[in-house]
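Exercise: predict the fold of this chain.
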Amino acid sequence: MEYAEVITSSGVKIPFVPTIISPKIERPLRRNRYEARECEAVRRMLKPGDRVLELGAGVGLLSTIAGMVEGIDSVTTIEANPGLIPLIRETHRLNGVSHVTVINGVASAEDGPSVDFYLRPDFWGSSMESQSRPYDSVVALPRVGVGELVKSLRPTVLICDIEGGELG
């Protein structure tokens, strides 16, 4: 992954990749306002021994904060947008977080056939919904059965921010 700048937001180093991080996300990142309440809540709530399951990793901000908690048992994050996976992993690397499991797929009630995911210029606008806004491309993604993950990982904390997919 190529980038010329690192933005520090809420104490987390994030590679600034203009083709991924649009001005609408860049401004709040630079002002420490991007997901500021979520960052504060994660820092306040997590404790040693917690096992975190995050649905919707975005740029990797919250999974990085979770991974930085001393004594955290595990952090697993699911992100549907395949273009974000290298950015998430680089965010983890820049912050010395090496023990977060990153899964590329669509969070679903159970494993099953792949589903279409519509990629839009602003990553946060990408979704499984095709009709409301134009999209750049479509990718078929595996369903990741959250029920099975909960059984196997036994998370003590669930972070869920999948831009409306929580309702599906």
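Check your answer against the key: The chain has one domain: 45-167.
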